[in-house]
Amino acid sequence: MKLNSIVKFLNKELKIKNIKDISKNGLQVRASENVNKIGLSVDACMDAFKKAKKLNCDLIIVHHGLFWKKQKDVSNITKNRVKFLKKNKISLYTAHLPLDKHIKYGNNVEIFRLLNAKPKELFGGVGYFGYLEDARNLDSIVKELNKKLDTKCKVLKFGKSKIKKIAVVSGYGAPDVLEAIKKKVDLLITGETSHAYYDDSEEGRMNVIFAGHYKTETLGVKALSPLLKKKFGLKTVFIDSPTGL
Q1: Rounded to 5, what percent of the chain is helix, strand, coil?
Q2: What is this structure's pTM?
Q3: CA 105, CA 52: separation in Å to the nearest integer?
Q4: Contacts of 139 (CB under 8 A, 6+ apart)
Q5: Do 108 and 90 share a structural domain?
Q6: pLDDT exceeding 70 applies to what percent of the chain?
Q7: How wide is the angle at C-alpha 160 spanned by C-alphas 155 and 166, nearest 5°?
Q8: Using an 8 Å Cβ cutoff, are 241 and 51 in contact?
Q9: Mind listing the pLDDT tens digit for each residue in 115-159?
Q10: 127 and 99 in contact (C-beta within 8 Å)?
């Protein structure tokens, strides 16, 4: 399959050009014009690239890419990564906020699906808020996320014990605790912890689950797998390169 066909399809499907982002989304490294196997990963790091090579991938699609709009200099680390990709003929495609926000394949919508919940409307720019099918204990939600995301959630139990209305912002959504308080949601689920918003959460009586930046952002790239298989008939593989954060 031609690389350009895949790039064109993803650009349209993920609405790459329609979402403002600090990431330079889309094709970041062109290294091979033909694609037979696609790797899907969270971060554009050497560990993921080496695994992609071992798995014979011609293209790797990531959430966090190599190039950013306000990037002043390209570090030697980044140059080495690009060199490795080109040497091994592995192209790199990036979808950052478009893959957080997407209503079908996004990280946040996928977390709603894990909890059998329905997103109602946008929250925090790229997240969503919505409702669980039935009110649940906070502890049961934590237990389910730990199991389904293979993570160890950190929890701020400052609000209601029974949860119905939730907000989800994958990755780093701690600043959105203020919007969660304003919109009177029962629980904010995000990825990365933040000391800065501890007191706001406590004083605003807001429950917060931190399920891990990495773990909450594995879902979007994984969701692209069946889409790409169906559209192009290509082999895909999720490349796990966890940070523990």
Answers
A1: 40, 25, 35
A2: 0.95
A3: 22
A4: none
A5: no
A6: 100
A7: 70
A8: yes
A9: 999 999 999 999 999 999 999 999 999 999 999 999 999 999 999
A10: no
